[in-house]
Amino acid sequence: MQPFGGGGYRPSIRRFHVGDYVYLQQTAPTTLDVTVGRIILRVREVLPSGVLLLEGRDSVVWKDHVHNCAPCHLPNVDGTMEPSLAIVRAGLRCMLCGSAGQAARMLVCDRCSRGWHMSCLNPPINVIPAGQWVCPRCTLEG
User: Where exactly are the transmembrane stretches of this chain (predicted)?
Assistant: First the structure.
């Protein structure tokens, strides 16, 4: 921190960029609760207001201000998304049939985030693919 007129100190501003890993600092709701652990998330977007859109391994997006985040400098952070943890957002409709039902049997494209029922695809997919999955539309667009 650097002093400025009047003997006060200028607060340091944390700057984060898309792709950075951060700790989301959480506090316990009351002093009786056990201290809440730190969560490591990846910066997905930095908004002009100082709010960060953060994404976890389960592809859930969090919003929090930069003041509640700290840089994570761990060299061994695994940045891959864990498909088994992914949650299909409520109301996501299948691109083929238009139904929002059967969320447990819906694949979400890793490029466009659109939903596709496994049974609606041609040919149908019976097993959730390991790793990233790209929908037929994005595959054609290359």
Answer: none
